[in-house]
Amino acid sequence: MTSQEKYVAAAYLVVFLFVLAYVVIMAAKLSRLGRDVAELTALARERKARTSDQAPKQVKVG
Amino acid sequence: MSTWSRNNPLTALAVLTTALLGASVVLIFFYAPVDQDGLNQKIFYFHVPIALTSYACFGWGALKAFLHLWKRLPSADLESYVAIHQGVIFGAMTLVTGSIWAKVRWNAWWVWGDEQLVLFLVLFLFYCAYFMLRFSVDPGPQRANLSAVYALFGVVLIPVSFLAIRLANSYIHPTVFTSSGPQMATSQFATFCVAWAAMLSLAYFLYRFELAGKRLDANLRELRELIT
Predict the structure, then answer these.
(1) DSSP letter string over B30-57?
(2) B8-17, B169-178, B215-224: the lowest-pLDDT one
(3) B35/A contact by beta carbon, under 8 A
(4) What is the CB neighbour count within 10 angstroms for residue B63?
(5) CB-based burial of residue A62 (10 Å sphere; 0-12 exposed, 13-18 middle, 19+ buried)?
(6) Stretch 9-48 of chain A: residues touching chain B, C-beta under 8 Å
(7) Mutual orientation of helices B44-71 and A3-54 as an angle, nearest 10°?
(8) Are residues B53 and B203 in contact, defined by beta-carbon separation less than 8 angstroms?
């Protein structure tokens, strides 16, 4: 490999690495958002279960 | 536009970007001829489109900042911030690929005597300082307004940076696009156009991707406040 070829390869590699790093960072952020969604869903389910427990029970009359 | 691409705009953009990047690499290495600059000239096909894309991102960020100040569009501040973030990423890539090209052509990583290089660095550092300003102010209308004014000031540097090479007396930096058109063969110009389309598509995809993530984050934060 000549020195010119090495520099050309380095230039293309730099662009690839920049984009790769950006995508990895964004993927990490998206996975954090996914965890947040799961946490909030669990919280909402818990709250719904609590409110249905507290609701007055229907009693048959007559 | 098909229903699928309308329902999955980010996936469609990712596919388009990948196809354009693949096509540009094939054209650069198997179609465009090697000129007197040697193999080093192949860097031009990525370096110049990346630089032009960073100008486009800064310009888009400034436009969104203007819309924020003028029409008070609720999403304009976030869109301006994300566009400038993209511009800085593409600006960093421009500086690194340009330095690699300069090392082969001029045997130096950086030439302080070249106006184009120095002005691009000034533009890049100006927009890097945008983030320092933005994150030194608490979120709210004041931060949005300050960021928008700063982004608008920076846009003045874009034509200065672009025209510097044409107005300067020293012609160290090669000028490919002159008033008489592009100074290259048709095959080279076609390759350049595909590479530029690929870079614009990449920047737009990353812009939409980051914007979607930031909006989702804001919505989740609001939902958390409502639930807890």
Answers:
(1) HTSPP-TTGGGGGGHHHHHHHHHHHHHH
(2) B169-178
(3) no
(4) 17
(5) exposed
(6) 10-12, 14-15, 18-19, 22, 26, 29-30, 33, 36-37, 40, 43-44, 47
(7) 40
(8) yes
To the nearest whole Å, the CA of A39 is away from the closest chain B CA by: 9
Give B82's pLDDT tier (boundaries 50, 70, 90). Answer: very high
Helices vs. strands in chain A: H and E counts, helices first = 1, 0
Whether residues A43 and B228 touch (CB distance < 8 A) is answered with yes
Q: CB neighbours of B163 closer than 8 A, spacing ≥ 6?
A: none
B99: contact with A, CB 8 A cutoff: no
For B144-157, how does the pLDDT look when each residue is reduced to its tens digit (9 = 90+)?
999 999 999 888 88
Phi, psi (degrees; rounded to nearest 5) at B181 = 105, 180
B22 touches chain A (CB under 8 A): no
Tokens of B164: 């510097």
CB distance A8 to B44 below 8 Å? no
Q: CA of A28: which chain B residue's CA is closest?
A: B213
Q: Is B89 on the interface with A (CB under 8 A)?
A: yes
Residue in the block written with tokens 């954090």: A32
Tell me the domain boundaries of chain A.
Answer: 18-51
pLDDT digit string, tens, across residues B93-136: 999 999 999 988 888 898 888 778 888 899 999 999 999 999 99
pTM here? 0.87
CB B227 within 8 A of CB B83: no
